[in-house]
Amino acid sequence: MDLCPKCGQSICRRAYNMNLALGYVEEQFCLKCLSKLHSQDMDSMFDFVFGYIQSRDCFKKEWIKMKIRDECPLPGSCVIHKCFINKP
How far is 71 from 60, CA to CA, in rounded Å? Predict the structure, then answer.
């Protein structure tokens, strides 16, 4: 698992996918830092990128590979309530 170059936190599979969807290929950031880069709060950033990911099969296919909350390395500092909505 990669670490965010700005804050050192782990970058989960879904945040990595968000980075790619936004064009960040060389460096990937955790959702918190990605949100700051785009002057948005984490919920707004998630909603924006999630909508795009769900409209593109290539990103959506990767998104669904992370199936359970326990796979999230940052459940207390991310938007897990949105990321795993209706999931155990």
Answer: 17
* pLDDT < 50 positions in the chain: 87-88
Give the pair of three-digit tokens for residue 50.
């999630």
Q: Report the predicted TM-score, pTM, of the whole model to 2 decimal places.
A: 0.85
Cβ–Cβ < 8 Å for 72, 83:
yes
- Residue in this structure with the two tokens 């060389």, named with its chain if needed: 26
- Which two structure tokens, joined as six digits, stand for 82? 């949105």
- Triad 48, 46, 14: Cα angle to 5°: 120
Side chain identity at residue 21, one-letter code: A
Helix H or strand E segment including 62:
helix 57-63
- Residue among 17, 12, 19, 16 at smallest CA distance from 61: 17
How high is the pLDDT of residue 88? 39
Contact 75, 87 (CB under 8 A): no
